[in-house]
Amino acid sequence: MNGTEMGVRRFGWVNWLGLATLARREILRFSVVWTQTLLAPLVTAGLFLMIFTIAVGSRRGDVMGVPFLEFLAPGILMMTVIQNSFANTSSSIMISKVQGNIVDTLMPPLSPLELLIGYLAGGVVRGLAVAVAILAGLVLVLGHGVAHPGWVFVFVLLGGAFLGALGIMAGIIAGKFDQMAAITNFIITPLAFLSGTFYSVEALPEGLARVTHMNPIFYLIDGARYGVIGVSDSAPGFGVLVVSGATLVLCLLAWAMLKSGYRLKS
Hints:
Blueprint: H1 16-31, H2 34-57, H3 68-99, H4 103-106, H5 112-142, H6 149-173, H7 177-193, H8 206-212, H9 216-229, H10 236-260
């Protein structure tokens, strides 16, 4: 029947139209409610900086040779990026499962890889949008430009992909909203807060420093710090390798879940 039999893929190696449609849907999910998804993180990041500056800024000496506010700002930036990337992919799948319309995503002729990329696109773009908004504010607050814009872009991109893939897995695994809240509260938040956001790893005891260096989010925050102010605890190139490897592992796991239909298909 000239390639029109049931079950035969008729879109070539990649269903570009389907992939673009899914990615567009995921981007529109957060962009149409920009006051919640883009403005709110900007306000939250500003409150973090203001509170820490008022509480300890005047009494805190330089950290790694820079004022405490400058040291803190890139960590707040990356923490906000990863939280929003995770929220975008996890909430998309979770809400679809709870509302029962996940079938609308699974039924179209999209491969597991195309589903993975489509969902990741929403998380990565949301992370980049949040990063641009916060960076603009940081330039005004700090009074100087970004030291290495290229490194900032690389680490924001990796952060969005890393937490986006983790969000896909969390959305698939969680069966209800309280389970998703548990994943966020007991895994994502501790990893973000215990990763050098508010302190230099050099100040930690040797044992805790080693544990921190096993956390991929540490390299995201440290890399963002290098990109924004030009100082870091570790080499940014090594951080890219670590986070890239961790992101690849999570993407493979998420792809396997999508392919098997784990907790998605009855």
